[in-house]
Amino acid sequence: MATKRVPQTPIAADVTIADMVETLDKPVEYVRRVLEKLERCKRAHGDAQVRVGVRGRAECPNYLIEYVREDAKTRERVTYQDAAYSGSTHRELAAHHIAEARNWSPEEMNITAVSALIGRLRNPRAPSSRFADED
């Protein structure tokens, strides 16, 4: 018997995790695991943000953890990639996945925004933020 291929849900090119919550298989678990990686990066580098992979499965997209540092001489903010992870296993992906810029949304979420998101997922009846009604 042939296996039926489920059509992939397309992922918008400029999506964030918050935009994708409705399509995730296990949103609370997924966001919790992403937050763990963000917290590890923040401990190591003092900052952390996440970009979603736009070429995989919308139910468990891969993600890229980054951090931003200010260049001491130029005062410019420079973004560094920490690691990319599989959205289904949350294991680190090989470095060549990171380098391919078109794999990743240009929009990032910082650790504070992801923390707020998991709070809303865990307690959907809590008073929501002013952004709740935006599309």
Overview of the structural elements:
With 135 residues, the chain is of the alpha+beta class. It contains four helices and four strands. It has a four-stranded antiparallel sheet with strand order 3-2-1-4. The chain starts with 16 loop residues before the first helix and ends in a 13-residue tail after the last helix.
Distance from first to last alpha carbon: 42 Å
Can you write the helix and strand succession as a string?
HHEEEHEH
The assigned structural class equals alpha+beta
**Helix content, binned percent:** 25-40%
Shape: globular
Keywords:
globular; 135 residues; alpha+beta; four-stranded antiparallel beta sheet; 4 helices
Q: Could you give the topology of this structure?
A:
Layout: H1 17-20, H2 27-45, E1 49-53, E2 63-70, E3 77-85, H3 95-99, E4 104-110, H4 111-122
Antiparallel strand pairs: 1-2, 1-4, 2-3
Helix pairs in contact: 2-4
Brief rundown of the structure:
This protein is α+β, with helices and mostly antiparallel strands and 135 residues long.
